[in-house]
Design brief:
alpha+beta, Aminopeptidase, binds acetyl coenzyme *A
């Protein structure tokens, strides 16, 4: 049976009360360590750039972005709880972020992803991102990042 994200929950804009849940979700699912302050700074810089996916009362995924330049958006963080993956939630969050970027007249999107994160790289390629170059030693463990980019 195909599960559709709309049958699981819904997307809403982040509110500061979500900070603890989002920080914990980040640190369960992403390899870099994030503090609530870091996430709050992302929110303050562009409040509508953080969206959460809520199933019941639980936040099971989120996306956080930024304006990189006047015309370029950037996906900073995207994560879905393991047991909620491959149900379309990551795609729904990304499409939602694309819409916000378009409304803000952004023309392209960039992101950095660990060069050994095959699952995420495949996911981004499927959505039209291509690798522009490698950034050696980008992460705190000195592993490399791939810079990926697409037009909106
Ligand atoms: N039935 C079967 N397969 C499906 C369904 C469905 N109903 N819906 C989607 N899929 C498939 C998609 O086609 C996709 O396939 P692909 O990977 O070959 O492209 C795959 O499932 C994943 O798509 P989604 O379900 O939309 O995405 P998901 O909710 O699993 O989230 C994500 C993807 C965010 C990469 C997730 O794997 C994750 O949280 N990973 C750990 C954190 C991470 O690495 N984040 C990215 C770091 S880089 C950064 O943040 C900039």
């Amino acid at each position: 049976m195909v599960v559709r994200p709309a049958e699981i929950g819904r997307i809403r804009t982040f509110i500061p009360d979500d900070l603890t849940d989002i920080t914990e979700l980040s640190n369960r699912t992403l390899t870099e360590y994030y503090t609530p302050d870091i996430i709050y700074d992302i929110y303050r810089a562009w409040p509508e750039s953080i969206s959460v996916y809520v199933a019941g009362k639980r936040i099971v995924g989120f996306i956080a972005g930024a304006k990189y330049t006047r015309t370029e958006g950037r996906i900073l963080l995207l994560a879905v709880e393991r047991e909620y993956r491959t149900m379309g939630i990551g795609s729904a969050l990304m499409e939602h972020f694309f819409e916000i970027c378009r409304k803000n007249s952004l023309l392209s999107i960039r992101l950095e992803v660990k060069s050994d994160n095959a699952e995420a790289i495949r996911f981004y390629r499927r959505y039209g991102f291509s690798v522009t170059h490698t950034m050696p030693g980008y992460y705190s463990d000195m592993s490399d990042a791939l810079l990926m980019w697409r037009m909106l």
